[in-house]
């Protein structure tokens, strides 16, 4: 009986950490994406140097704290899903380097930009903030798109993974479209943040950008949905029990038309996730039109939840399907850490996740209010 309950707990913890991974990825989209969205539209919302400084100072006190979500996401994959981490980081190695290089210049842009009054100097760092805002969000979306399509990899008998694709193939049309979706949501989040926390005219331009890219996101999300409906998905035909010790070599998986919508057909309540995406974006646009950017920001967060929930619901139980050998696909059941590891991680998460939410909320509350052009121009400590 004790062994039975241990197995049931193991299966439950696997599902729990699949959900928590989705929460962390959503946190990356909402918090990190907001900052990167500001960097992407920096030259549009700021027509003068001091206006650009206003935009930078809106996110300046928070961007490095928001990076915690990025670190947590990578750490969760490493600790809870080691086989997914090893396979993904091996196959996507060059893409990961591009992501890393683009993000290395991000803190330099914040810290060095205003150290010299030279226009050329500041223009260079503005370019780095654009690059470090745009590229990571495109890569983030493209990675999700590739996982939906399936990744070209397989294992040998030692569970050594072999990536059989190319760098260029990772930026296929569907993945690029998902990258556009991710970037559009990031710009929306950044635009609503500036609309709420910056003074005019920066806030006015940011509101316009947020509305435009919310509508772009609605169109792209719809396009991705129709595209997914025509794709071959993956179906788990046979394998060990969910809580049993297993590897990807112990299962049979086939590709099947319409498999990405199978969970939606079986559980119609899952359509709530795509509905949340549309509701969040459309109501967000209406909130911006009513000059309520703070509400629009929260609705954008709701849209991110809808997007990540839509992907997760379509793919479950797959985490990283293989198009080279579908039976070597990584699932929730065969790629997780041990029962003890997941148990300890759950305990520490119950301690630290509320602390992260608390200090993030506290920081935004303490530094609430509008960032004004005159205040930034007069301050010696502003970025």
List keywords for this structure.
mainly alpha, 6 strands, two-stranded antiparallel sheet, 6% strand, 69% helix, 14 helices
Short description:
This protein is mainly alpha-helical and about 375 residues long.
Detailed description of the structure:
The chain is mainly alpha-helical. It has one domain (2-151, 164-371). Helix content is 69%, strand content 6%. The protein has a two-stranded antiparallel sheet. A two-stranded antiparallel sheet has the order 3-4. The longest helix has 39 residues, at 2-40. The relative contact order is 0.15.
Overall number of strands: 6
Classification by helices and strands: mainly alpha
Low-confidence stretches: 1-5
Q: What topology, given as strand order, has the largest sheet?
A: 1-2
Rounded to the nearest angstrom, the distance between the terminal CA atoms is 62 Å
Overall pLDDT, averaged? 90
Q: Estimate what percentage of residues fall within beta strands.
A: 5-15%
Oligomer: single chain
Using only CA atoms, what is the Rg? Answer: 22 Å
Q: Can you tell me the number of structural domains?
A: 1
Order of helices and strands: HHHHHHHEEHHEEHHHEEHH
Topology:
Layout: H1 2-40, H2 42-45, H3 49-59, H4 63-80, H5 82-91, H6 93-112, H7 119-149, E1 153-155, E2 161-163, H8 173-197, H9 202-229, E3 232-238, E4 252-257, H10 262-266, H11 272-289, H12 293-315, E5 318-320, E6 330-331, H13 339-366, H14 373-378
Antiparallel strand pairs: 1-2, 3-4, 5-6
